[in-house]
Amino acid sequence: MQRTNPRNLRVAAELKRLVNELLVHEINDPRLADVRISEVEVSADLGVARLYFNTLYPDADSQDVELALGRASGFVRSKIGRAVRLRRVPELRFVKDMAAKRGLELTRLIDDVTGDDGGHGD
């Protein structure tokens, strides 16, 4: 298991907060209206930040969202550079967070196995 130092955790938490704030208040791309950052992992040297994003509809195709995030990454990095005191602003890599989709698939599988149709025994 990778050991994470407290500074990396603080930087990751701050990046998550800042990018989500930018998505809500400053980025006007309609493709990113329902996108939120769920997790951030920062490399040991703080050179790369992997930002996991969710959409409101986990089953939807995320290719447009990934393109929009890629186009906005320069703007986001510049805002991060002004807001956070770091020697070097990390390179941003956006990755679709598959946890919600996997959760839905597991729920469907469990419902299929148990024969549960979503009702409450009515």
Task: Characterise the protein shown here.
The chain is an alpha+beta fold and 122 residues long. The protein has a single domain (6-114), classed as K homology (KH) domain (GMP Synthetase, Chain A, domain 3). 47% of the residues lie in helices and 18% in strands. It has helices at 6-25, 63-83, 99-114, and strands at residues 35-42, 48-55, 91-96. It has a 3-stranded mixed beta sheet, covered by helices on one side. The longest helix has 21 residues, at 63-83. It is globular and about 55 Å long.
List the helices and strands and how they pair.
Elements: H1 6-25, E1 35-42, E2 48-55, H2 63-83, E3 91-96, H3 99-114
Parallel strand pairs: 2-3
Antiparallel strand pairs: 1-2
What CATH calls the topology is GMP Synthetase, Chain A, domain 3
In CATH terms, the superfamily is K homology (KH) domain
Structural classification = alpha+beta
Query: Compute the gyration radius: what is it?
Result: 18 Å
The CATH class: Alpha Beta
Q: Determine the strand fraction and express it as a percent band.
A: 15-25%
End-to-end distance: 47 Å
In sequence order, what are the helices and strands, one letter per element? HEEHEH
The number of distinct structural domains comes to 1
| Annotated CATH architecture | 2-Layer Sandwich
Strand order of the largest sheet: 1-2-3
Q: How much helix is in the residues?
A: 40-55%
User: Which of globular, elongated, flat, extended, rod-shaped describes the shape?
Assistant: globular
